[in-house]
């Protein structure tokens, strides 16, 4: 009785959402060419059948679960049509699949062609749990299919991170796209052990150790593109949470011209980066694109007659012609120790991933004073605050004034999708938030993406940086030596023509590159 009620309730729910019912035995002719694009295993795994294409635009798709967005995205990606979902019972779907397919290549083989593992996987042994059972679960078809399809989808959607989060009754999956987390349909809890074991084996972790955090990495070729994936696990109350950081060099431009700086500022910045000595600092919160900016500088200055050395934690991208060293604090190879060794390696340019302490800061600054160009990052809110941070670390003010050449503070904002960009009138609250900070918002037109298929209805596509560039002039140097306050330094910097982060944001929003709401979100 309850089953009948549940089915009736579901039909009512589908009807409320405007989802029609498909009767595959009576209503539709089955299209084998459409089905071939999806493959039998995709259709069986997601319980769906392609029916017909309307106006060469819309694919009618019969589905057991018409709210399965991952299945719809796969169908759209493989066929090139916009999906209109219809609900259908499982018996009819299985009947249609049995009529449509015979001898097609299976889904696992198809995904194996798309996702190849580059790194060799070492054997990891532990006696604490049944390793054989975990390995068996890791090689089961559902776990392999799930991990491979998730990697393919992440690359297709330009995701920077994959979050796999065990919940009480399901496996939550989210992708970070353009800096924002996007939730995918949850996976069944039954996949959890196999998926976690699969990822840990690929990234060379101990699959039997589930009590402490672990880190690993693996190289894939996904749809022919080389991709590095850094993997981190941490134990939770419902199982191990996994985050996979995708380092896709092919999706990131390392051209200094693509940083989005104003032409006059870019020419000055390039000149600072071509100096034989001095320090270039890039600052901002985690995830603001600091490392990408430094890599762009390294690409710009990289020539055969220069010895360029970097120490990073971790090394995110491999750059040809540059000597890159991975910091390993657990064995004593800290930033400071690596920098001391660099000075005996006849370097011209040195990049240190981050100035975290007094020792690293002092060595880096002394290197900048002794004929080396030094590049590094700090976590500060703006360019002037970086000077105060260095002073608070205990670095001598005379050393700071003599060594630092330029400080770039930056944030990342989402770009407006060009396919659905339209002018908008910002709310009074937003306008007040900017005018209260002394910004002229009159005679400016702002834009927003209304949402479309290309941007997955977010209104945004890709990201771009906002910059605040402080060139250390003689006046600024004198003020540093005189122990002037942060507010006084900001006043002089502004008077000398420094464009603040918020001013750069408003300018780029008025040019239609980003929305004013995005600027407000990151500053």
Could you characterize what this model shows?
- The protein is α/β, with parallel strands linked by helices.
- It is 38% helix and 26% strand.
- It has 20 helices and 19 strands.
- It has helices spanning 2-16, 32-38, 40-46, 69-79, 90-100, 107-114, 131-138, 141-156, 192-202, 263-273, 290-301, 335-342, 358-369, 383-393, 397-403, 428-435, 474-481, 486-495, 501-510, 516-522; strands at residues 48-54, 58-63, 82-87, 115-117, 159-166, 170-177, 180-188, 214-222, 225-236, 239-247, 278-283, 308-312, 323-326, 349-352, 373-378, 404-416, 421-424, 446-449, 460-471.
- The strands form 4 sheets. The chain has a 7-stranded antiparallel β-sheet. Strands 13-12-14-15-11-16-19 form a 7-stranded mixed β-sheet, with helices on both faces. It has a 3-stranded mixed β-sheet with strand order 1-2-3.
- Helix 7 crosses helix 9 (192-202), helix 13 packs across helix 15 (397-403) and helix 17 runs antiparallel to helix 18 (486-495).
- The protein starts with a helix and ends with a helix.
- 37% of the residues are buried.
- Mean pLDDT is 85; it is low at 1-5, 103-108 and 120-129.
Unreliably modeled segments: 1-5, 103-108, 120-129
Structural Rg: 27 Å
Overall shape: it is globular
Question: What portion of the residues fall into strands of 2 or more residues?
Answer: 25-35%
Spatial order of the strands forming the largest sheet: 4-8-9-10-5-6-7
Sheet with the most strands? Answer: 7 strands, antiparallel
pLDDT averaged over residues:
85
Strand elements, count: 19
Structural class from helices and strands?
A: alpha/beta
What is the number of helical segments per DSSP (H or I, 4+ residues)? 20
- Helix fraction? 25-40%
Measured distance between first and last alpha carbons: 57 Å
């Amino acid at each position: 009785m309850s089953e009948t009620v549940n089915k009736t309730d579901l039909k009512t729910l589908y009807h409320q959402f405007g989802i029609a019912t498909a009767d595959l035995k009576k209503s539709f002719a089955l299209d084998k060419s459409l089905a071939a694009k999806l493959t039998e295993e995709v259709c069986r795994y997601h319980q769906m059948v392609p029916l017909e294409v309307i106006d060469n635009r819309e694919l009618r798709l019969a589905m057991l679960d018409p709210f399965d967005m991952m299945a719809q995205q796969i169908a759209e990606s493989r066929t090139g049509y916009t999906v209109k979902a219809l609900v259908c019972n499982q018996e009819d779907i299985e009947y249609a699949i049995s009529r449509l397919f015979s001898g097609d290549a299976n889904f696992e083989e198809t995904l194996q062609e798309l996702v190849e593992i580059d790194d060799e996987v070492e054997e990891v042994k532990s006696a604490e749990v049944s390793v054989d059972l975990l390995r068996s679960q890791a090689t089961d078809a559902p776990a392999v299919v799930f991990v491979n399809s998730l990697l393919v989808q992440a690359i297709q959607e330009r995701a920077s991170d994959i979050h796999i989060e065990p919940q009480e009754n399901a496996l939550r999956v989210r992708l970070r796209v353009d800096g924002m987390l996007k939730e995918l349909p949850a996976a069944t809890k039954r996949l959890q052990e196999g998926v976690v074991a699969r990822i840990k084996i690929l990234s060379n972790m101990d699959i039997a150790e589930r009590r402490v955090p672990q880190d690993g990495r693996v190289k894939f070729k996904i749809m022919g593109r080389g991709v590095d994936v850094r993997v981190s696990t941490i134990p939770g109350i419902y199982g191990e949470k996994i985050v996979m950081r995708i380092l896709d060099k092919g999706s990131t431009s390392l051209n200094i011209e693509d940083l989005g700086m104003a032409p006059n500022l870019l020419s000055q910045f390039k000149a600072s980066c071509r100096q034989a000595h001095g320090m270039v600092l890039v600052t901002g919160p985690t995830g603001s694109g600091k490392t990408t900016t430094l890599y762009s500088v390294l690409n710009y200055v990289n020539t055969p007659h220069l010895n360029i050395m970097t120490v990073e934690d971790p090394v995110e991208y491999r750059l040809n012609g540059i000597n890159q060293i991975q910091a390993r604090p657990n064995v004593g190879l800290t930033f400071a120790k690596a920098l001391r060794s660099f000075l005996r390696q006849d370097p011209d340019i040195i990049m240190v991933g981050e100035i975290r302490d007094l020792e690293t800061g002092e060595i880096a600054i002394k290197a900048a004073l002794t004929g080396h160009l030094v590049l590094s990052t700090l976590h500060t809110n703006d360019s002037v605050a970086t000077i105060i941070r260095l002073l608070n670390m205990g670095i001598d003010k005379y050393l700071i004034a003599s060594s630092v050449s330029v400080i770039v503070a930056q944030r990342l904002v989402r770009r407006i999708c060009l396919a659905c960009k339209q002018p908008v009138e910002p709310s009074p609250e937003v306008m007040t938030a900017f005018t209260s900070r002394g910004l002229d918002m009159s005679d400016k037109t702002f834009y927003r993406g209304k949402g479309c298929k290309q941007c997955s209805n977010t209104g945004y596509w890709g990201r771009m940086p906002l910059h605040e560039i402080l060139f250390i002039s003689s006046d600024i140097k004198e003020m540093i030596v005189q122990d002037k306050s942060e507010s006084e330094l900001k006043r002089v910097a502004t008077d000398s023509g420094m464009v603040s982060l918020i001013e750069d944001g408003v300018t780029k929003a008025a040019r239609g590159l980003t929305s004013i709401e995005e600027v407000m979100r990151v500053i």
